Amino acid sequence: MAFVKACALSELEDDTPKRVELDGTPVSVVRTEGEVFAINDICSHANVSLSEGEVEDCMIECWLHGSSFDLRTGKPSGLPATRPVPVYPVKIEGDDVLVSVTQET
């Protein structure tokens, strides 16, 4: 599993998604509830960036249709999305947020 730097931890504001592209994969990096998560940035219901949505209770909401996805599992909380989005392992080393997009979990 190859980890690459996604951003600096100091760049992340609580509950504010940050969109990055890692090895051609759009990823939303989110710091919430004292943890950092990485989730695929594209909603499984429509081709919409999740990083433009809001974060609450460890969920990220798609701003277009209102589906929310669990940052830990990628599973949607309800319609219209029915498929999960990939989530990625995260490591923190100093101020670096490292993400592996080579193996989806």
Automatic annotation (TrEMBL):
Domain of life: Bacteria
GO molecular function, one term: metal ion binding
Database matches in PROSITE patterns: RIESKE
Keywords: 2Fe-2S, Dioxygenase, Iron, Iron-sulfur, Metal-binding, Oxidoreductase
Enzyme class: oxidoreductase
Rieske domain: residues covered: 4-99
Keyword Iron tagged: yes
Pfam families: Rieske
Enzyme Commission designation: 1.14.12.19
SUPFAM superfamilies in the cross-refs: ISP domain (SSF50022)
Name recorded for this polypeptide: Bifunctional 3-phenylpropionate/cinnamic acid dioxygenase ferredoxin subunit
